[in-house]
Specification:
Elements (H helix, E strand, L loop, with lengths): L7 H15 L8 H14 L5 H9 L5 H11 L10 H19 L5 E6 L6 H13 L7 E8 L2 H9 L1 E2 L10 H6 E3 L5 E3 L1 H4 L2 E5 L17 E5 L9 H13 L1 E8 L13 E6 L2 E6 L17 H8 L4 H7 L12 H16 L3 H9 L9 H13 L3 H14 L4 H13 L3 H14 L4 H13 L3 H15 L16 H15 L3
Parallel strand pairs: 1-2, 1-7, 2-6, 7-8
Antiparallel strand pairs: 3-5, 4-5, 8-10, 9-10
Length: about 500
């Protein structure tokens, strides 16, 4: 039976499963795309008949392995180097130069996240951009994190080898200066650029972020192009909120021109650049947004043309949500720390800091307040202040493993791996089953190229993960579950074992 002969109720139910577990939304107008993808997945799953394959997928909740296969056939990896040049021009001519100027001579660090990186052309383009802009790149701590839901795309990105089609709109100097050419006609990214980018698997809808332990926080720039359009309105609202929380105050969110309707980003300041609109995180939005330069009025019509079945619902659904009720005055009972924790969960890190600092001189140090302050300051990129609060906490209670762990996380962000390693070892000495401390030590060993030590620490993390159910949230993880960390460890190990 051909894919288009499958009964519609099956496709409707399958669409619900895919949307819930993967964040990919296939409304009726795109069922043909879903059917084409399932035709390829059917063969990989070992079925001859697509109907039988769909029934099998609907018979039980999909496993992670099944989701990986589906992602490989349902997501589109259409990308190339230096795609959407006007957006990159805004980064290269305005945003990144301003960040570099502000931090040169001080805390020389830049953090960028390519949140739907596909096969790697986008994050490598950003790395090359910074390489050209920073003659003193070695004196900077540059972090470029690249994530995607499709494991096959990530494997290609890690390999860093591309054909001519990936360079179809690239500048002429790109291949000559930044790639090694093989006799087979492939171009491999040079090691100097490859080492600037860290790749990881991430489901933007289902996974937890911003999370300090997994390095998805305090970003200066997040590039998330051509991904939001695949989500349902509630999923889109959730993802946009999470991305906002992962940015420092004043950080920038970059979406594709077809997604850049200001109605979708009410909590951001929309700034116009020639041919592009970018969104800046700001806790104080003006009544009238400043216009940097005029741009064609293409954004709303473009997204309407692309997504005629979702735009009205998206705009209606993205209205500010009513504040949650506080039953029985729970936050009032818990005092300032309870109120600050509620603000932290909403990603309002500046408000957390203001609320807690105003009462920090009153009475003895509250460990919960110190923890929230350190986390909120780190998420804002205020690493020196965050470290100071960790140190105050440790001075008050030297035997609290959490204080040493948070100090290590901040030190890692600050580019002090040796000190971070010492703090992590102290945390494990005080709590041998501290899963995230073992995980962080494994990542440190991985960054030094010490495979044996990495394997030891990751094995320890997996051993202590057995204490938890997959849905259990890990202590000090900002919501990361045991199952998610287990999958992350498996993905890292698989990539480390690639030839």
């Amino acid at each position: 039976m051909m894919p288009n002969q499958v009964r519609k109720p099956r496709w409707s139910r399958l669409n619900d499963v895919i949307a819930e577990s993967m964040g990919l939304h296939f409304p009726r107008a795109r069922w043909d795309d879903m059917q084409r993808g399932l035709a390829g997945a059917t063969q990989e799953f070992g079925f001859d008949d697509v109907t039988a394959c769909v029934d099998w997928l609907l018979s039980a909740p999909p496993t992670n392995a099944q989701l990986q296969v589906l992602a490989g056939h349902l997501t589109i990896g259409e990308t190339y180097f230096f795609r959407e040049r006007r957006t990159l021009d805004a980064l290269a001519e305005d945003i990144l130069p301003a960040l570099i100027h502000a931090r040169r001579g001080g805390d020389q660090r830049l953090r960028i996240w390519s949140a739907a990186c596909s096969s790697g052309e986008e994050p490598y383009s950003l790395a090359i951009l910074l390489h050209r802009m920073l003659p003193d790149l070695r004196d900077w701590r540059v972090t470029i994190t690249a994530t995607d839901i499709n494991a096959r795309f990530l494997n290609k990105a890690v390999a860093g080898a591309y054909g001519e089609w990936s360079f179809r709109d690239a500048p002429v100097w790109l291949k000559q200066n930044y790639f090694d050419h093989s006799p087979a006609g492939r171009y491999t990214i040079i090691p100097e650029i490859r080492k600037l980018v860290n790749f990881a698997h991430l489901n933007l809808v289902e996974d937890v972020y911003p999370v300090l332990p997994t390095d998805l926080s305090a970003m200066d720039v997040i590039v998330c192009r051509n991904a939001l359009m695949y989500f349902t309105p509630p999923q889109m609202r959730k993802v946009i909120g999470n991305l906002r929380g992962a940015l420092v105050e004043g950080g920038w969110l970059v979406v594709s021109p077809s997604e850049a309707s200001k109605a979708l980003f009410p909590q951001f300041l929309g700034v116009n650049f020639p041919g592009a609109i970018l969104f800046q995180k700001s806790d104080t939005l003006p009544a009238t947004e400043p216009q940097v330069a005029s741009v064609p009025a293409f954004t709303v019509p473009a997204i309407e043309a692309l997504l005629p079945w979702t735009l009205p619902a998206i705009i209606a659904d993205l209205k500010p949500a009513a504040p949650r009720e506080d039953p029985a005055g729970a936050n009032a009972v818990r005092g300032p720390v309870g109120a600050a924790e509620s603000l932290y969960q909403k990603g309002m890190f500046g408000d957390v800091v203001s609320a807690l600092l105003s009462g920090s001189a009153e009475g003895p140090l509250d460990p919960a307040a110190a923890s929230l302050l350190a986390r909120a300051l780190a998420n804002q990129g205020r690493l020196v202040d965050a470290l100071a609060w960790c140190d105050r906490w440790i001075t008050a209670d030297k035997l609290d493993p959490v204080a040493h762990y948070l100090r290590a996380v901040v030190l890692l962000e600050h580019g002090e791996p040796k000190q971070a390693r010492a703090s992590l070892r102290r945390a494990i000495y005080l709590d041998h089953g501290f899963v995230l401390a073992h995980f962080a030590l494994g990542n440190l060993a991985r960054s030094r190229g010490n495979a044996g030590e990495m394997d030891k620490h990751f094995a320890n993390a997996l051993y202590f993960l057995r204490r938890y159910r997959p849905d259990d949230r890990l202590p000090e993880s900002d919501g990361l579950t045991a199952g998610q960390l287990t999958e992350t460890l498996a993905a890292i190990t698989d990539r480390e074992n690639l030839p």
